[in-house]
Amino acid sequence: MLLYQIYVGLHKFENAVVEVKNAVKMRKIQMVDLGSQYEKIKDEINASVQNVIDSTAFINGTEVKLFQEALEKYLDVKNVIPCANGTDALQVSMMALDLKPGDEVITTSFTFIATAEVIALLKLTPVLVDVEPDTFNIDPKAIEKAITPKTKAIVPVHLFGQCADMDAINEIAEKHNLYIIEDACQAIGAEYIFKNGTKKKAGTIGNLGCVSFFPSKNLGCYGDGGAVFTNDDELAKKLRSIVNHGMTVRYYHDVVGVNSRLDSIQAAVLRVKLKYLDDYAKARIAAANYYDKTFANNPKLKIPVRFKNSTHVFHQYTLITKDIDRAKLQEYLQSKEIPAMIYYPVPLHFQKAYNDPRYKKGDFPVTEELSKRVISLPMHTELDNEQLEYITNNVLDFINKN
Predict the structure, then answer these.
(1) How confident is the model over 338-352, as pLDDT tens digits?
(2) Was domain 277-401 assigned CATH 3.30.565.10?
(3) 37-129+136-274 has which CATH code?
(4) Is this model's pTM higher than 0.90 or not?
């Protein structure tokens, strides 16, 4: 009887130990873990925001100017023009270039809708082209083929965290006298390495560069925000007027403008986080390296290709699946509490709002294939090895079972 009681007691003890271990759970896996990131810089963020509140300078306050100057220094660019969001950054850039209704602007069909949206809003003509199968970025050869006498600008999108082939794009733009507006919303901090060995940050290469500070971006605020970059002082002067209702002097409106300002609280958050941007990139690269090492030799997964002329800051970590039911993989991961996203399931030329008789199924084979096969895994600055191991093990478990 005594032995039985001892046995029952030990069994209960073992169960209690298991329950304690299970209680010490791994942190919840998120696509972007802004909460954990905030905890590490909480005191700095709180103090910076409190300073704005104490000053009551909520619009065009000191923090906006200080952030602008800090970002100009980081990017080594002459002018940063803060604005309300990344979409506005693209729109005001096109307004500053005096593009006219009917002018054609070339961009990619494999991107977020904002890139083409602003072109259409300004009554310009979006001309969509295919992307390269390895980098997912706009194909320079496709750009060249799409140019007509009406073409006025190219908008290369530095997708998922690395730069498009800017050597080739610059040559095309120079040859045809075209503007370049870089959509660098996913690639802030990435560096482009030119053929001659010189380097420039994403967004500082073309006539204008645009970024978003949406919270999930590599440099994200706690609301909405954006900016335009340029080394052209005249363009910068015009942009500053456009984002402020077309004013240079208060109540004197020289151009048609919009109301697009970065508020002081968001600037205060961004100025703190800018100090950590390179460290954030290192953390993302470390996570990407872990994914790469795990998936590199798997015949059903193609890991992201890192373009030799650009660093990669991994806004997203995007795999190309092969002979896998992508929807079932996503569903399986979600059942294991692992978020996975599909960017972008419907290419721009298949979107109802951008239906155009010029384009039909099969015109952009790379884009159409990628939209069916890509899947993005959690990618942010706070991923730890326990989480990465759990994610990768479950991806491999699904593949092995299917």
Answers:
(1) 999 999 999 999 999
(2) no
(3) 3.40.640.10
(4) yes
